Amino acid sequence: MSRAKDIAKKNSLRIKRKRRVRGSISGTASKPRVSIFKSNKYLSAQAINDVEGVTLASVSSKALDLTVNKDNAVKVAAQFAENLKAAGIDTIVFDRNGYLYHGVIAAFAQSLRDNGIKL
């Protein structure tokens, strides 16, 4: 039972961080919010226009047949950068969705920068 409690506490702390960060950032059509989600198996991201409530571009490691690690996060981010450029987006607001900025999340953000997207 203590493992289940530890996992629940970890998730509740992430949700707290998510709400705190989400209160101060928002996306527009010209500068959308990029929200990232990471599970133990997959990584996904989407560019969101919060004013209209629409998703402008998205990517998933599941669709690319990749799992979650730093090397694959770089590949997913490269594909996402292409999707963003196809939608005419070159500047974003990065929403780490409550995750700590290290490992896979940091590799994803750095790869977006390397592919010409301004954070």
From TrEMBL:
Keywords: Ribonucleoprotein, Ribosomal protein, RNA-binding, rRNA-binding. It comes from the Bacteria. GO terms for cellular component: cytosolic large ribosomal subunit. GO terms for biological process: translation. It holds the Pfam family Ribosomal_L18p. One of its GO terms (molecular function) is structural constituent of ribosome. This is one of the proteins that bind and probably mediate the attachment of the 5S RNA into the large ribosomal subunit, where it forms part of the central protuberance. Part of the 50S ribosomal subunit; part of the 5S rRNA/L5/L18/L25 subcomplex. Contacts the 5S and 23S rRNAs. Belongs to the universal ribosomal protein uL18 family. This is Large ribosomal subunit protein uL18. It comes from Arcobacter nitrofigilis (strain ATCC 33309 / DSM 7299 / CCUG 15893 / LMG 7604 / NCTC 12251 / CI) (Campylobacter nitrofigilis). The lineage of its organism: Bacteria, Pseudomonadati, Campylobacterota, Epsilonproteobacteria, Campylobacterales.
